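Hmm, what's this shape?
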Amino acid sequence: MNVRDLEPKIVWNHFEDLNAVPRPSKKEEKVRKFMVDFGKSLGLETLEDKIGNVIIKKPASPGMEDKETIILQSHIDMVHQKNSDTNFDFDTQGIVSFVDGEWVKAKGTTLGADNGMGAAAAMAILSSKDHKHPAIEALFTIDEETGMTGAKELDASLLSGKILLNLDTEDDDEFSIGCAGGIDTNTTFEYKEEPVPNNFKAVRIVLKGLKGGHSGMDIHLGRGNANLLMNRLIYELTEVAEIRISSLEGGGLRNAIPRESFATLVFADVATDTVKDHFKRVMEDILNELSFVEPELTISMESVELPDKMVSKADMSTIVACIYTTPNDIWKMSTKFEGLVETSTSLAKVEIKDGKFKTQSLQRSMTEVGKRDVANAVKLNYEQIGAEVIQSGDYPGWEPDPTSKILEVLKTQYEALFNEKPRVEACHAGLECGILSKHLPGCDMISFGPTIRNPHSPDEKVKIASVQKFWKFFVKVLEDIPSRN
């Protein structure tokens, strides 16, 4: 079945139109033009602020003029991740999606349901002539995935709405009323290189097949971190032989749990059998340990051509120890919301080559105190070895408001439609609401959306029935927006 034939067709067709446009973070020129052209083609007031956010305004339906103006907010950039064996150019190609049973997926890449489904729903309301709604201000922000620049630099004078519906939550029975803030920590350590002796042997270790996923929403699932697993393997090998790293590259995007790591190691010929035997034992230990949560994980080693350079002995010990002691995973659980991760950190990327050891990590927390605490821990770990540490992209969390009026509207409609209570939660992802609330003081905000799994990874998928449920609920909510005071 073709994705465009799925119901509701108006949403899926807008989603496919959007997915045909390359839209990597910080390279949104094409999708910005697409969205501006879309608004103008409908004869609607279409604006673009200085940073590149697009705002499309649609008047209220007849009889809805006295209702509060609604801001429908979603981001139009997407995380671009692909499997190592997938040949795909995100800068020039559109996403190729397909129906797989109950889900829509992409062929070897991220799908872009995060946040393409939210954007498609907003587009569907803008283009629809069949649904009642109050005055709409559809806000399509840029660069959410790599710094939330669009939200940070928003020209709020272009908006008048007092209620904001963020369409970026990834469980169809959940309403998000709070989220984590975050900060990036990037480090660089210059190491000494030495020539590789002729009596050395080189191997390439490939670790792949991990699930990866969103480093906020999925941090509690116990998934493997490719960077930490590769470093653990290398450390174990240094216990039986003098192993040196020639080069290493692990992970990809700052906000994704790393799925793959590739390392070229060198060691003396005489240690070959010892290294191979120990590699097999450590590999089996790791595979057995993660067999339940990471059934697709593979770790292989093969001989390769001898490289020219390797990390010096002293710096090798420093680097491996530093990675091993880098804080990662859950730092603190919330004491206010049961089962909610309050603070976390994820080592997203490690690169060792050409005399430089570089890392990228992202720290998240529901509180400013927690964010500073874990960011300091990561910073100090790298400063102790003399690395340059740059922390940037700091953005605030979104403080939950359980007395929200729009929350009561959504709860009432959800229970009436589906005969069950929704889950009202704060999430550990970096929703833009935290930043937007600073630009739009007094604006009542809430986030919801269809069920999406494995965002930020090539295993990303969106549940077809959930999109139908989300759309049914979404249009009912728009009909029940309260009147202006």
Remarks:
- The mean pLDDT is 95.
- The longest strand covers residues 341-353.
